[in-house]
Amino acid sequence: MNEKKEAKRLLSMAILAGKIMLENGAETYRVEDTITRICTARKFVNYAEPFVIPTGIFMSIGYNDEIITYIQRTKTKKIDLNKITLVNEFSRQFVNTDITIDEAFQLLHEIDSTKAYPRSVNLLFGGFAGGFFSILFGGTFLDFISAFFVSVLVIETKQFLEKYNIMYFINNFVGAFVATVFAILFTNIGIGNSMDTIIIGSIMPLVPGVAITNATRDSILGDFLSGISRGMEAIIVALSIAFGVGLTLRLYFLYFGGM
């Protein structure tokens, strides 16, 4: 195989690595740095110039007097920091060893197909997160118990909707709706003391913390397009949660008078 074809396959492989990172919540600068290091690890590449935004990767590399360009459309799927870490480790291995591009493709496909934590683990620790947040905001032990179970229901609902590729606005709206309905129910039957703290704790698994953090970091580093894009994503998610909670409480107090 001649070097030009090898350069094209190298570019394709680097884009795959960046795609995995971007779709699992990596920051823009981290994706750009990773794919640049991968491409420049081979001597037949003169230069590498990436441009990454949350919905796409644009990459050009120089081979002799030619420029090879690749464009990859991406969509944010979920937050999986484990895959980001695995790709980072892979990039170091590729740069520091003589691993072939075929082997690199195989490793990346294995990383991409790596399953996240088991469903039971996600539900358990998501429930603990919601319960402890309710205590953090002044809740009692009963509120902790209520928020724990409500958070489990919220995560289960969100994961169920994600299987059908429901848009994230509806996904988070329904999750907030479920959190509020069961917080009201648990309070009325006496399992919880404070409806407010149960709701606050149980919607925490929906809060777009990574999107807010990445938007801030991208903006500080000068990637304003990515920063604004991620910031808008965080705002839309926050609004969907607010609408879900607000509408449910409005209907509850309107038709039941708060009982």
Write up this protein.
Helix content is 68%, strand content 8%. The chain has 259 residues and is mostly helical. α1 (3-23) packs antiparallel against α2 (28-39) and α3 packs antiparallel against α4 (101-112). The longest helix is centred in the C-terminal third of the chain and has 33 residues, at 224-256.
Radius of gyration: 22 Å
| CA distance, first residue to last residue | 75 Å
Low-confidence stretches: none
Which bin fits the share of residues in helices? 55-70%
How much is the average pLDDT? 89
Give the SSE string.
Answer: HHEEEHHHHHHHH
**What strand order characterises the main sheet?**
1-2-3
The geometry reads as elongated
Structural class computed from helices and strand pairing: mainly alpha
**Total strand count, please?**
3
Number of helices: 10
Strand content: 5-15%
User: Tell me about the biggest sheet?
Assistant: 3 strands, antiparallel
Question: What features would you highlight for this structure?
Answer:
259 residues; 10 helices
